[in-house]
Amino acid sequence: MKTSLNDTFYIENYLQGKLSPGNRLMFEARLLLSRKLRTDLYFQKKVHMLVTIYHRKKLKEELNTMHNEIFNDPDKFVFQQSIYQLFQANNL
Amino acid sequence: METLEAIVAEKKTTHDENEMMQIYERAFPSAAVFVRHMGGNLEDAKDIFHDALVIYFEAKWKRDLRLNKPEEAYILGIAKHLWIRKYHLKHTVVPLSDVEKGIAIPEDCFSTINDKRLLRFLELAGRKCMDLLRAVYYQSLAIKDLVNTLGYGNEHTVSVQKYKCLEKVRNIIKEKSLVYEDFLE
């Protein structure tokens, strides 16, 4: 593996707690010595965060589709009405 | 070649979808009653309920939940916490049961404008990588599943692709973050 990909591998396993104690110590020593590695660690954490946001966004799209299926299904008329009636103006 | 999204959709079983739909129908009414009581409309109810379901499934996936009450009770509790956080309310305005008080929701459940901006860019510039990383981290797609479905030679090749994607997305974020800093100064 190229050096940069190797670093990516180590950062990933460090973040997921998968490094052996010895490798973890060595990696933390490298972090102290390398500003680039610290920066890459910071931004790789951000990748995880953005993948989480992306996953949540896609899941919400799927839930929206499910909501439309439920509320357009003739077999679920009773359920639909029970929800619509909650929000009718004269019930507020 | 099939997109990764289509592959993941195929792997979802009818059982998974039926189960999700059952949870939806069991849990939505109480969330809707709560939102109506707080002065919200059906769209508000749908929005907060979907946010609550996302948090609930994440916690379930990470095995962060110790379920000793019905699922609907947890989902309603999450919805209440999200409502409190979204509208900056106090707990006295939204009374919580003991079970609901014990529910913790992630600090990052609502993303910032910068994050949304970055994500929009990543969806254009790094969509395939984002789909691959999502499949690996959140959709329980094992590396061997990706070998079979994406036509990679072997698991090592898929692993290397995963790390290349991590690197690519990281470098895009780094570059864009530096650009935004220039505008903020």
**What is the average per-residue confidence, as pLDDT of chain B, rounded to a whole number?**
81
Our measurement of the CA-to-CA distance between the termini of chain B, rounded to an integer number of angstroms, reads: 45 Å
Distance between the termini of chain A: 64 Å
Question: Taking Cα atoms only, what radius of gyration of chain B do you get, to the nearest Å?
Answer: 20 Å
Mean pLDDT of chain A, nearest integer? 91
The share of residues in helices of chain B is over 70%
Topology as H/E string of chain B? HHHHHHHHH
Please tell me what the overall shape of chain B is: globular
Q: Describe the global form of chain A.
A: rod-shaped
Structural class per helix/strand content of chain B?
A: mainly alpha
Per DSSP E runs of 2 or more residues, the count of β-strands of chain B stands at: 0
The tally of helices of chain A reads 4
Q: Order of helices and strands of chain A, N to C?
A: HHHH
The biggest beta sheet of chain B is recorded as: none
Give the largest interface pair and sizes.
A-B, 40 and 45 residues
Give the amount of beta strand of chain A, in percent. under 5%
Describe this structure in words.
The complex is a heterodimer of chains A (92) and B (185). By secondary structure, chain A is mainly alpha-helical. In chain A, 79% of the residues lie in helices and 0% in strands. Chain A contains four helices and no strands. Chain A starts with a helix and ends in a 6-residue tail after the last helix. Chain B is mainly alpha-helical and 185 residues long. Helix content of chain B is 73%, strand content 0%. Chain B is built from nine helices and no strands. The longest helix of chain B has 30 residues, at 155-184. The interface between A and B is large, with 40 and 45 residues.
